Amino acid sequence: EHLANQIAAGEVVERPASVLKELIENAVDAGAKTIDVTAEEGGLGLIRIADDGAGIQPDDLLTAFQRHATSKIVTGKDLFQIATLGFRGEALPSIAAVAKVRCVSAADGDGLGRVLEMEGGAVKKHEDAASPQGTDMSVRELFYNTPARLKYMRTIQTELSHLSDVVYRQALARPDIAFAFAHNGTTLLRTPGNGDLRQVVAAIYGTAAAKAMLPIQAEHPDYTLSGLTAMPVETRANRNGITILVNGRYVRSAAVVQPLLQAYHTLLPINRYPLSVLSLRMHPSLLDVNVHPAKLEVRFSKETELRAFVEDAVRRTLGERAY
Ligand code: ADP
Ligand code: MG
Fold first, then answer.
1. CA of 22 to the centre of ligand 2 (A)
2. By the 8 A CB rule, do 236 and 298 touch?
């Protein structure tokens, strides 16, 4: 069990940002309306995430840290059939195997919760504790017991940029959740949680960038597309400013990015990228998913059709302004 957790940790926990991704997904799954993230030293010192979601019942807290105790499904394809982001039930045990974790959680508003502390997979403390409804999870000294892994970590600045990326994508995917992110005492992001995507874009990329975006909205028998896309396009934008969401999940997909860029191509110098948040919805049967814990790569069964749809939708959105 111990060893299995450490092996799984090697898969799930590549770097601080992978820990943060798993913990934010858990908070989202718990129905949180507010998610506060604090990190120190690029997440290697501390990753703390407090949410006001459903919380964990005291009797379930230890189980949540046991491997596969909560596994919901087995194959990647099912991933888009289920409503929750988490599905493997191995994030918490994997994280607890390679860090010092403290989790305080309560499932009711009566203040009666429980605290669990673990170090390198071993339980250090497990007792009743006062807690507001929700979950407060601290992960300290990541990789303290796996020096080989620790050695591979980059500079604090690099790890921080990966952490920011995780928070940004989740905030863009869920404008209805208020996210806050602070690193070494400095607040880097605060979103209002009022459902307005443009305000999330403003919080991440600045007000000017957010103002210079057009709403995009298109329907197709198989797909719907919505979001915001830049016009005019700033020169400093790069590929990283493109966020693709499929059924609410952040994915990487050339099948969406390429037609997006193609639509801009007649307007833009070839090496310029628009700031863009595109959210696609479709039946899960039209998706083929190759799941890696750290990133989600997705293929579409009717890719040619989808490409044409995306390109046309973006073209028409830009056309209303540009031609
Ligand atoms: P998974 O998300 O795949 O189910 P995890 O290891 O990430 O597996 O989490 C295990 C379980 O712990 C979850 O299924 C959930 O029941 C519970 N849990 C974890 N984090 C939270 C949270 N922030 N709020 C409520 N429940 C949580
Ligand atoms: Mg999870």
1. 5
2. no
- For 233-251, the DSSP string reads PPTT--GGGEEEEETTEEE
Dist. CA 120 → ligand 1 center (Å): 19
- Residues 210, 188: Cα–Cα separation, whole Å: 17
Ligand 1, residues 47, 92, 108, 138: which to mutate, most atoms within 8 A of Cβ? 92
Euclidean distance between CA atoms 67 and 77, whole angstroms: 21
Does the C-beta of 135 come closer than 6 Å to ligand 1? yes
Which pairing describes strands 242-246 and 276-282: parallel, antiparallel, or unpaired? Answer: parallel
Global pTM reads 0.91
CA distance between the termini of the chain: 63
DSSP conformation letters of 3-66: HHHHHHHHHH-SSHHHHHHHHHHHHHHTT-SEEEEEEEGGGTSEEEEEE-SS---GGGHHHHTS
Burial of 240 from C-beta contacts in 10 A (0-12 / 13-18 / 19+): exposed
The CB of 86 under 6 Å from ligand 1? The reply is: yes
pLDDT, tens only, 130-146: 999 999 999 999 999 99
Q: For residue 323, what pLDDT is reported?
A: 46
Residue 284: exposed, middle, or buried by beta-carbon count in 10 A (0-12, 13-18, 19+)?
A: middle
Please name the residue whose Cα sits nearest to atom 4 of ligand 1: 89
Tracing tokens 């599905």 back to the chain, one arrives at 87
